[in-house]
Write a structure and sequence with these properties.
- It is a single chain.
- Strands 6-7-8-3-9-10 form a 6-stranded mixed sheet, sandwiched between helices. The chain has a 4-stranded antiparallel sheet with strand order 2-1-4-5.
- Helix content is about 45%, strand content about 20%.
- It is globular and about 85 Å long.
- Helix 7 packs across helix 8 and helix 8 crosses helix 9.
- The protein is an alpha/beta fold.
- It is built from 19 helices and 16 strands.
- The N and C termini lie far apart (about 65 Å).
């Protein structure tokens, strides 16, 4: 099992390695206060705690030696509690906050040395930003707000309004083009902000807690709409949130931050199932695994598969030998054809049929390997048979039962309990060892004195 997990993890890493890196941050520091460079350059201060640095220098460490990569077209989430450094980090990425040390590479070019002219050009042509507070111009219409960035770039009025209209419609605001922002709800105003950022056709879109001020229902709708836009436009997204549920829903990968450092980077499923330390484990302990575990991660291999070239009598014998009532039928290339049962095979043989496809049961459900367990539960519960997991080309990958899902949940709980028990046991052993050390004579002389009564004060 461990070898299999390692192989899967290596495969995932190799897959990521093949993807083009769009944004890369290397050894990034952000220190607020007087003479911030000394924090980075002094070996003792560099490794000191935030509290010690504040006490000794009056400086606040916002980011400490942060490094990560974002692949082109990826939805990358920076996740953390208030004060973790996530908003500071995303602002440093386009130098709205100036880094103290480190490199920020966009398409392989370090932007830290950029002058104001090159930086302005980068912001206008390559990146777009959506803030928590919408920042709309209250005296301008929705269409004017969306087109404003193009106006600053000197785009002709007819072209900028045509492009703005396209994105107004993409975010679902058709019919609201000529209203002022005050006439719109919070969710609609945030749609204007997103449309304004997209109208410039940025390669990279940075979103700093864009939905945190919205009501829960509107927030979920906006999350869905943003994911739909991402599926269509394939931008590179850096998304900041303090909401774990939101992060697990939208992220391809996520970075968990604490005290200006990145603690763990991984897919939502990796973070939930393999937290890197006790902090991440506590951070995600209330998250439902059903929201992130995929069909691929919980599926099982069936005891037997049937193949399209086998005859009904041979197929029936295979099912009886395996002591099962049904099996999936696949082609030579592994493409799923359907499901047959003992009952339907017997009927086919009585009709003197010769092809398994004539015994296929139409009442069969399938799902993709990346579908989350939460969406699978009603599908699996309503199916008479296990649900077949298939890839994009309908190749058979495995099967999922209700019992499979329940077993995976129990297994995760058992792992957590085992880890907690091991931690508790280690603590008890450490305590016992400490007591034993205290009771053990510190030297032969002290042992002799205890044994003879010498050295005892009267």
């Amino acid at each position: 099992m461990a070898a299999q997990q390692a192989e899967e993890q290596n495969g995932s890493q190799n897959l990521d390695a093949d993807r083009e890196v769009c944004v890369e941050v290397r050894d990034l520091w952000k220190v607020f206060g007087p003479n911030p460079r000394r924090i980075v350059e002094d070996p003792e201060l560099r490794n000191a705690s935030k509290d010690k640095i504040l006490e000794e220098t009056g400086c606040v460490v916002g980011l400490r030696d942060v490094s990560f990569q974002v692949h082109r077209g990826e939805f990358f989430v920076l996740m953390g509690l208030s004060g973790s450094g996530k908003s500071t980090l995303i602002r440093c990425v386009i130098r709205l906050a100036e880094p103290t040390a480190g490199s920020i590479l966009i398409n392989g070019d370090d932007i830290v040395p950029y002058d104001e002219h090159k930086l302005g050009e980068l912001r206008r042509s390559t990146t777009g930003m959506v803030f928590q507070h919408f920042g709309l111009l209250p005296h301008r219409s929705v269409l004017d707000n969306v087109a404003y960035g193009l106006k600053i770039r000197g785009v002709a009025a007819s072209e900028r309004y045509d492009r703005a209209q396209v994105y107004v419609e993409k975010v679902g605001l058709k019919g609201w083009e000529h209203h002022l922002p005050a006439a719109l709800s919070g969710g609609m105003q945030q749609r204007v902000g997103i449309a304004r950022a997209l109208t410039g056709d940025p390669e990279i879109l940075l979103l700093d807690e864009p939905f945190s001020g919205l009501d829960p229902l509107i927030r979920r709708q906006m999350q869905d709409e943003l994911m739909e836009l991402q599926a269509e436009l394939q931008k590179t997204l850096l998304f900041v949130t303090h909401d774990l549920t939101e992060a697990l829903k939208v992220a391809d990968r996520m970075a968990i931050m604490r005290d200006g450092e990145i603690i763990q980077i991984g897919s939502p499923e990796e973070v939930i199932t393999n937290p890197s330390d006790s902090y991440v484990r506590q951070f995600v302990q209330d998250a439902s695994p059903t929201k992130v575990l995929s069909a691929r991660s919980v599926m099982e291999q069936p005891p037997v598969l049937l193949y399209s070239w086998q005859g009904p009598k041979a197929a029936l014998q295979i099912l009886r030998d395996a002591n099962v009532d049904s099996a999936f039928v696949v082609t030579r290339g592994g493409r799923l054809l359907g499901m047959v049962t003992v009952e339907r095979l017997v009927q086919l043989i009585r009709r003197k049929g010769t092809y398994l496809r004539d015994a296929l049961d139409p009442d069969m459900a399938t799902c993709g390997g990346d579908e989350v367990v939460e969406d699978l539960v009603p599908l699996v519960a309503a199916s008479r048979y296990p649900v077949a997991v298939v890839d994009e080309e309908d190749r058979f990958l495995g099967e999922v039962y209700v019992s499979t899902i329940i077993s995976s949940m129990i297994r995760d709980t058992e792992v957590e309990e085992a880890e907690a028990s091991e931690t508790e046991l280690n603590g008890e052993e450490d305590s016992a060892n400490s007591e034993s050390e205290e009771q053990r004579p510190s030297s032969p002389e002290s042992a002799d004195s205890k044994g003879t009564g010498e050295g005892v004060q009267s």
